[in-house]
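Protocol step 4 of 6: structure prediction from sequence.
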Amino acid sequence: TAGQERFRSVTRSYYRGAVGCIIVFDPTSRESFEHVNDWLRDVRRLSCTEVSLMLVANKADRQVEWCVPSEEAARFARDHGLGYIETSASNGSGVDECFEQVARAVLARIEEG
């Protein structure tokens, strides 16, 4: 998975100059959530100072299997200045909204100068 160390060097090149970033984790996996801090640290170190960030809990269609509660993920996002949304790649719920929120945040920062 992308959370594995072998992918980190590849993905780091995508952060350079980024103005928006979406960090997706699998809430059915505690380990996936624990990697969010690593990704966040890399993004903040390598992207633009004012990068717009969104934390995404995928698999909203499988909430009964979640071992990372919505409240915990939302609190983490709030504490770290991230947006937060729950999506499902399987049925598409929340996916468009996620991208639209990040795009609006990026546009707002551009318009602010």
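Step 5 (inspection) to follow. Residues 16 and 93 are 29 Å apart (CA to CA).
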